[in-house]
Amino acid sequence: MNTSETLPELNWIAFADSKRISFGAPTDVATQAKSFVDAQPQTTVFMFDAVSSQRIDIDLCAPLPLVLRGVPKPVAPVQPEDAPQADAPRTAGRPKLGVTAREVTLMPRHWEWLASQPGGASVSLRKLIEHAMRAGKETDRIRLARESAYRFISAMAGDAAGFEEASRALFAGNEVVFRECIANWPADVREHALALMQAASPADTPAG
Fold first, then answer.
1. Which residues contact 131 (CB under 8 A, 6 or more apart)?
2. Measured CA distances, 146 to 149, 183, 195 (Å)
3. Residue 185: CB atoms within 10 Å
4. Residues facing 46 on adjacent strands
5. I need a labelling partner for 170 at 20 to 30 A (CA). Which of 14, 38, 39, 157 fits?
6. Mind listing the pLDDT tens digit for each residue in 156-186?
7. CA distance 164 to 196
8. Which InterPro entries match (predicted)?
């Protein structure tokens, strides 16, 4: 597995003890994990969402149809209410923008500043909010990716040597130290942990 690849969404990953046995679409991973458990019932199998690292709890001792019944079905994206409908008749006037009017309470100097901006208060407020949302989106992405990596290493290597140091390096964003701390972990666990660590890197920071 190339640890620099971007982990796709809607994929699962399965491990038998510390060896990776499957990675891909949930139905495929569940089927392969079920086959492995049937062949080697004494081995513990762990399944995770490959992006969030949430544990997948499915009874792999059950018959395959029941196992697959526990696999979530793909959900089509919901079309926004203000998105144009293919068969909707066109009407005159401004297109629907989905704007909602609500009360905003600001200090007088804030209103004065907003009123002096091009487009007035409403346009300026929308621009400020959009900028804050974009800035916060990257911060949230990194936080969620680090939480995912920590969730995975806690489940698969919580008792391993270097776990505490690796955890600190993960949340500090120090990939070099993280690599050093997990160098002696089982290869498949180490490689997936590195992929998750790299997914938690800032967008403008090249993977090591």
1. none
2. 5, 19, 11
3. 21
4. 15
5. 14
6. 999 999 999 999 999 999 999 999 999 999 9
7. 17
8. DUF2239
